[in-house]
Write a structure and sequence with these properties.
Layout lengths: L10 E3 L21 H13 L17 H8 L4 H7 L21 E3 L2 H7 L3 E4 L2 E7 L7 E8 L15 E5 L2 E2 L5 H5 L5 E11 L5 E13 L1 E4 L3 E9 L2 E8 L7 H14 L3 E5 L5 E3 H11 L7 E7 L8 E4 L3 E2 L2 E2 L7 E6 L6 H9 L4 E6 L7 E4 L1 E2 L16 E3 L1 E6 L15 E2 L16 H11 L15 E5 H4 L4 E3 L7
Parallel strand pairs: 1-21, 12-13, 13-19, 14-27, 19-20, 20-25
Antiparallel strand pairs: 2-23, 3-10, 4-5, 4-26, 5-6, 6-7, 6-8, 8-9, 11-12, 15-16, 15-24, 17-18, 21-24, 22-23
Length: about 475
């Protein structure tokens, strides 16, 4: 597998057992001091990967407590957090885009975050991709990637590949699309359009009069969207579309591999194209289900800053889940489907398996996240033990670098596919069907048949901006276990 690098992103670690940790009492005492600001500075001073490179986080930055508090007073929690992020020495301190670390983040209520880590969030059930029409245009379109079962969208007239040009009658552009889709509104109306091409093969977006109202509900997404066996000649190909590493579904994931074992599959296609990450423990378990012959060997390592180097840890392949044996396939090759939305724990699967078996990556470059962040809470230990009840702020600063068993971690431009196949809106196909472009390519590589060829007139590729999981803060990798900091 070929690997490249460019930009910094994060893996995401949790320090508490990430079940719904909601407080029973929703009323908070008025916070009249600098509790939150002190928590932010102290947490970053202790744990931040680049602490030594941020002058305002230096251990000797303040000579006394009065100087310390005077420094903190002018800042809101969010502004202080932003100010303390690492910038290159020659960067513009006033320009947020000069921050080297643009992926640490802060939240004002950790309860919602904890639910998201288990795949539960307020959602209407549509996962979108977002693209610019062209390099010289600020017009944005959304398109439907997939629908989550048991959601509001699942019972509405909406399907994969449809194009959205507006929300509530407002056309999407670079400045408004994120707010329009992810405001606090419980419902909104999607405005649909047809996608065609002119004589020069330039995209034309034409509103078609279809409008559809969707309502958000508290929705738990089962990440196992599709599980099936495809027979092609002498090959029995297992296909798994897996959209999130949520530990509460690990037993069902193990059952899926039990199904593959019972069917006697000869190859596995693992579809991670829309999987933005999740639990590292789930990632380790999945890697161990794919293989099974490497129990006890190193799957991944994390290295922290100088202060916290004693936390450096090796994570090993496993053979059990909750005391039960894993249904392992003992494969020596796996085919993985990827896009720019394949991130964090998904990339860990590819990078962690690469030293041990042949990982054939088909699709696009992945997102590129090779560093880890940790959930920090306002308590003496920065965990939820002894939590300050005056507020619910928490933060996720980058704290560690991730690498595989041979020390490789340089994939900041994403993991490079062995066979480049970029998804196009006009040729998305039906997920799980053998003629869908990415899956068709995998089947072709397995069987030795010709790979899928995109029609000439639909090869125009929009400029990928983002996806709905990224905008909801779901591009993450976390450990669902307690740690001592």
């Amino acid at each position: 597998m070929k690997l490249k690098y460019k930009r910094l992103l994060f893996l995401f670690i949790s320090l508490c057992s990430l079940q719904s940790c909601q407080d029973n009492d929703d009323s908070l005492p008025e916070n009249t001091d600098l509790d939150v600001q002190k928590f932010i500075w102290r947490g970053l001073n202790e744990m931040y990967l680049w602490q030594e490179k941020v002058p305002d986080l230096a251990d000797n930055r303040f000579t006394n407590n009065s100087e310390y508090e005077n420094f903190l007073k002018p800042f809101s929690p969010e502004n202080l957090f932003e100010k303390l992020l690492y910038r290159a020495p020659d960067s513009d301190a006033a320009n947020q885009y000069d921050v080297v670390d643009q992926f640490s983040w802060i939240v004002s209520d950790y309860t919602t975050l904890e639910q998201q880590l288990q795949g539960t969030s307020k959602s209407n059930g549509v996962e979108f991709g977002f693209s610019r029409i062209s390099q010289n245009s600020n017009q944005v379109i959304a398109y439907i990637r997939y629908i989550i079962p048991n959601s509001d969208a699942a019972v509405k007239d909406i399907k994969r590949g449809e194009v959205i040009y507006g929300i509530n009658g407002t056309s999407l552009n670079l400045n408004n699309y994120a707010n329009l889709f992810f405001s606090n509104a419980e419902s909104y109306t999607l405005n649909f359009a047809d996608l065609t091409y002119d004589s020069n093969n330039n995209p034309v977006i034409t509103p078609n009069g279809k409008n559809l109202s969707l309502t958000k509900t508290t929705l738990a997404e089962n990440p196992i969207l599709i599980k099936k066996v495809i027979t092609s000649g002498a090959h029995k190909i297992g296909y798994l579309m897996y959209n999130g590493f949520y530990p509460s579904y690990d037993s069902q994931l193990n059952d899926a591999f039990g199904f593959f074992n019972s069917e006697g599959i000869t190859e596995l296609v693992l579809d991670l194209r829309y999987n933005s990450g999740g639990s590292v423990n789930s990632s380790i378990r999945l890697a161990s289900m794919i293989t099974g012959q490497f129990t006890g060997k190193i799957f991944n390592e994390l290295a922290y800053n100088t202060k916290k180097s004693f936390l450096n840890k090796k994570y090993l392949f496993v053979s059990t889940i909750d005391g039960n044996a894993l249904n392992s396939l003992n494969l020596t090759k796996v085919y993985v489907l990827t896009t720019r939305s394949t991130a964090s724990a998904s990339e860990l699967i590819i990078n962690g398996l690469d030293p041990y078996i042949n990982v054939v990556q088909i699709g696009d470059y992945t997102y590129g996240k090779n560093v880890a962040s940790v959930t920090l809470y306002d308590s003496p230990s920065l965990t939820k033990t002894g939590l300050n009840k005056n507020h619910r702020y928490a933060m996720q600063p980058i704290v560690a670098q991730s690498q595989n068993s041979v020390g490789f971690s340089d994939y900041l431009d994403g993991l490079v596919p062995d066979h480049l196949v970029t998804e196009r809106i006009k040729t998305l196909g039906i997920l799980g069907e053998p003629n869908e472009p990415l899956l068709s390519t995998a089947i072709g590589k397995i069987t030795g048949t010709a790979k899928y060829t995109l029609p000439e007139k639909t090869t125009t590729n929009f400029i990928h901006l983002n996806d709905s999981k990224t905008l909801r803060g779901m591009n993450l990798m976390y450990f669902d276990e307690k740690s001592d900091l």
